[in-house]
């Protein structure tokens, strides 16, 4: 059975730094970021604790391909993607994810 995946973008409270990741368990992964489970990681160092974008894909391979594509995008394109999907840049994390 194929397992789906999710591409997501985390940012800090000032929306100045982006972390783009991929996971098969968005809920657990966002909790890892918020709790700074890996204290030496990029997201912990730059306080990326706010989930501002995510998209689910039927397979993890599709999600990985999308993550690689987004990481190559320039900053303005990433800002537009987030703003188009989350105009107020709210933290989209909730316990039901």
Automatic annotation (TrEMBL):
Residue spans crossing the bilayer: none
Database matches in Pfam families: GIY-YIG
Record domain GIY-YIG: where: 3-80
Keyword Signal part of the UniProt annotation: no
Presence of the UniProt keyword Amino-acid biosynthesis in the record: no
Keywords: Endonuclease, Hydrolase, Nuclease
Domain of life: Bacteria
One term of GO molecular function: endonuclease activity
Family note: Belongs to the UPF0213 family.
Protein's name in the database: Nuclease
């Amino acid at each position: 059975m194929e397992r789906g995946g999710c591409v997501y973008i985390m940012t800090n409270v000032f929306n100045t730094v982006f972390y783009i990741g991929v996971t098969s368990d968005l809920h657990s992964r966002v909790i890892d970021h918020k709790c700074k489970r890996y204290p030496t990681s990029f997201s912990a160092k730059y306080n990326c604790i706010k989930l501002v974008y995510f998209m689910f894909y039927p397979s993890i391979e599709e999600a990985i391909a999308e993550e690689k594509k987004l990481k190559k995008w320039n900053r303005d394109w990433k800002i537009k993607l987030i703003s188009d999907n989350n105009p107020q840049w709210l933290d989209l994390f909730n316990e039901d994810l």
